[in-house]
Amino acid sequence: MEAVLEYDIAEVQETREKPVRKPPTNIEEYLAIPEGAPYFQFINGEAVYFPTQTLHHQSIILDVLIPMNAFVSANNLGKVLLSPLDLYLNDRELYMPDLMFASNERLHILTEKNVQGAPDLVVEVLSPSTGYYDLSHKKMIYEREGVREYWLVYPDELRIEVLQNTDNGFIVLNQARKHGVVRSAVLEGFSLDITEIFE
Asked: What is the H or E stretch that residue 145 is in?
């Protein structure tokens, strides 16, 4: 039996023939764009283009995702979400974190198209195109908007740093470089041996 196509081929061809669109001028305009590349994040109200991930970057994300998702699923804790997926925090800040975790108590922030509100945990793998923002403005916004835990992965340093949001802002909960284990407070009982991430 022949498979039924969900999408009309003419629509696909029409989409492919459209010229490359200009960067959106605001978040509302961006959210109205059909899904797919090119991808933008809004940082302090400014559209910033982000290129697709490198093979190494994606490999690291998967090495964190697979055990984290297995732990969350086994313990029925919520949902682990993978980029590309928009995280809408306010009218000036819309990001695309590498990984997010939303607890069962926070599942109401998940919509069909994006995440609207602070997830419990965010993971960012630093790269030349994103590292500056991940360590500065985005970190400040994650802290202010209530992300409870922020994992920073430094591929060049073979290091993972886990930050916990407290009354005094983000503090280093634990970190490891080249070898050792990092642990989560949000996902109590979950840990990662970083030698398995940076093989």
From this structure: helix 137-145
> Which of 31, 30, 32 is closest to 47 using CA atoms?
30
Instruction: Note the pLDDT tens digit of each residue in 143-161.
Output: 999 999 999 999 999 999 9
Domains and CATH numbers, the chain: 9-196 (3.90.1570.10)
| Contact indicator for 156, 120 with CB cutoff of 8 Å | no
- Confidence label for 37 from pLDDT (cuts 50, 70 and 90): low
Q: Is the four-CA dihedral 26, 27, 32, 33 of positive or negative sign? A: positive
Q: How far apart are CA 61 and CA 75, in angstroms?
A: 21
Residue 48 pairs with which residues in a beta bridge?
41
| Residue 165 reports pLDDT greater than 80 | yes
Residue 120 is classified by DSSP as S
Three-state SS for 111? coil
CA distance 94 to 116: 9
Positions of E strands within 76-137: 78-82, 86-90, 93-95, 99-103, 114-116, 121-125
Instruction: Quote the mean pLDDT of the chain.
Output: 87
Integer angstrom CA distances of residue 100 from 15, 50, 68, 107: 30, 18, 10, 12
